[in-house]
Fold each of these.
Amino acid sequence: MRALTSPIIAALVAVVSVAAPAAGQIKGPVAPSLTPEQNERSKSQAAAFDEAAVKEKHRLETFKDRPLAAVIQRSLDIYTNYIGVAAQMMPESSYGFRPTPEQRNFGEQINHATSTQYSFCNQTGLPPGVERQAMPRPAPTTKAAIVEAFKQSTAYCDRILAAATESWLMEVVPKVGGPSSGQIAGARAHIFIYNIVHNAEDYGVITTYLRMQGVMPSSSALDTRAQEAR
């Protein structure tokens, strides 16, 4: 009997250990759900700041017969729009908010996205006619300046891509990627893809900031499918 029960007890201990919260896990209520009023306000704000239609018109006009650049620009537009709209939706009083002490505050997180865009887009090298730019230093601290800096970094990456030929995008450069993921030799197009992936990651991070401050994330606020289904 003892031989039979010992493995069972060990298994139960293992299950309890997995199910139990970690020692450092915060206990207690989570942030409340957004109210209907907060949702409607977020949707109204997102619609006012949305630049998706303008970006798509520019993309279609700029990248005719350039399928590689066109698809890169499309993905870049989606996430820069989400981040840009979110940055404008967040009240300035919440720009100092951070979900945990170890994380950046909201303003710093937007600045991080801005700085990384300059870093990646400069990593491509510059096609003819484009002048090198970089993140402003010191980094902006007010909402208006942070939003504007992000817009300028996006416009800079857009200019590089607009000036690039398909063959230039396929040329191999010695260092592609970020310091944490490691750098490899790769096509210039791959650098733009790294930037898009990083923007998607940054946007995913700030959705938590937004909801904890009573703001619906911009991608959800701009999603009209639920409204169209009514």
Amino acid sequence: MADQPAATENGQNGNGDIRLGSYIKGLVMIAVLVGVGYAVKGLGIADGFDQGWIDANIKDQGIWGYGMFFAIGAVLTAVGLPRQIISFLAGYAFGVVEGTAMGVLATAGGCLLTFGYARFLGRDLVRAKWPRMVAKVDGFLGASPFLMTLLIRLLPVGNNALTNLAAGVTDVRMLSFVAGSTLGYIPQTLVFALAGKGVKVEAETRILLGVALFVASGLLGVYLYRKVRKARAAHKAGAAA
């Protein structure tokens, strides 16, 4: 009897076929994502997570309120709720300083959940079915994962949850991605925490401060992008020589 072809790391066997286990994990990943999405929408969980709910369940609840906000915020951002909403509500519930910290922690928790979910359930199937797409994401993040992730988070583009899912199926280290994301979340989180708290300054001043922080984070992102691009060009030139 002929030997069975050995399975490779990306979930394929020696003939290039995807292992059944990879299919099952990928299908489970898709089914859970769809199920959670419908549950959040059908039960009105995201709609109910508003200022009234914060007043009743989070404010003045001590450590329980902090823990509840972190857990719910992490889960909701993991399934696609915009992180700006979490940041606004964090500012409303805890004030500017603590609200910024809680908003960043909750969003980083959601990042970790989504990244880990993609890494451990859907990675084999996605890499086997769309190797070129994964290679492109790997190429973008791989040279400097922390710096490039920081760049993505500073620039006001892209979808947070989809970015986490895409990174999860690459070879990027989880620690580098989550750390870069956490640092990059801070500027926008501060802007929305300020708005949520309704800081007692003139409306024009508050708007200008928010715009300044937003523009500053974007300019920093552009600077980092150019720096990384130059470093890559120099590396390619050196390799060609």
Amino acid sequence: MGLIPYLLSFLTPGSFLYVDLFAAFTNALNGALLAQRPDHYKRGMFTVIGILVMAVFGGIGGGTTRDVLLNEVPGSWTNPWYLILIILAWIIGLFIAFRKGQIFRETTFQIFTAFSLPWYAVVGVEKGLQAGWPLLGAIALGVVGPTAGRYLIDITSGLPAKQLVQGEWFISTAILTSISFFLLRAGAMGGFGLALGFIPATLIAFLIGFGFRMAAIWFGWEEPMPRVPASWLKALPKRETLKEKMQPGWEPKE
């Protein structure tokens, strides 16, 4: 078998593989660009190989962590298309990072990352249900998939993980999507809740998570902070909303 037929054999028509590959590519490009963003790059001064590792973390870090928890061989390491697209995202990230790349990453590209977050949550819960995991375990898998990759990127960069600091309902979006999908789908697996098929349950849960995430980043909805002295909260920098970033002439801050 030649190389092209061999690679094409891994692309299954009619499956959700294409959506998963798109999400992996999106997150890999996000990782490559993040590694070259001032707050990440100036701390670590990543080499081109370092940026490739960040692209791998972003692209398949969450899915790999999820599958290892399920005691499965990660599908992203047995299907060559995942690594092919990660390498492509790495190359693109190297070329566009210091021109319009960071503006793109902070604006239009946020829509793509908002797409991949609920998708990975749905896949995690579905795998948990198939493995017979209970409610909390399945929801935890739904959270690990979309968040572990960014966690690895930030920790490797010496920064607090994005999911754990002031932000626009990042983990909460994964939780909301996971709970929605579980309640829509678990009945089909013998659990409590509705018994919708995978496709309708996925579409509904995805729209809930995607809509909530887009509203959060567009309007700047943020997770509540703990009770601390008011002066501490005043010292926190004002976060720019996606709506503000989409205005003509906006430039990312150093």
Amino acid sequence: MAEPAFGLDTFGDIPVDDSGAPVTAAAAIRQVVDEAVLADQIGVDAIALGEHHRPEFSISTPETVLAGIATQTSNIRLGSGVTVLSSDDPVRVFQRFSTVDALSNGRAEVILGRGSFTESFPLFGYDLADYDKLFEEKLQLFVRLLDEKPVTGKAPCGRRWTTSRSTRRPSPAG
């Protein structure tokens, strides 16, 4: 039987300082990085950062914060908890996580989801009525990108996909 793995997850909740005032989002993000570095030093197996576009959370781009963590750690697995694929570009998500994977020597993990909060849909110009279709079409493209082949096709919401091998740069580290 495999040993249990231990991990942390956060959306970068905005904490309060000693006076009870909320800290800045920038300070909250730096605190998350510091916590991840400490977690790596004491042997925690994984950290997952979630994506939100709300004022009470500081992390709107988990992969950016994970890239910062990657350069200061050596063992902890770095994951999203969750990346809202429905309102993002799957090629760019693939590229951003491939970059984190390269920086971390293969420790990046992406967890793709629809989003339990839907604030990203109007923020990025998507119709909430397309909630299911968007996830399905974007997940199809993301999975096809894993094959390292050019991808062409028509998505359920009418968008066209055309990629090339150069779309997969950088390649995942391993």
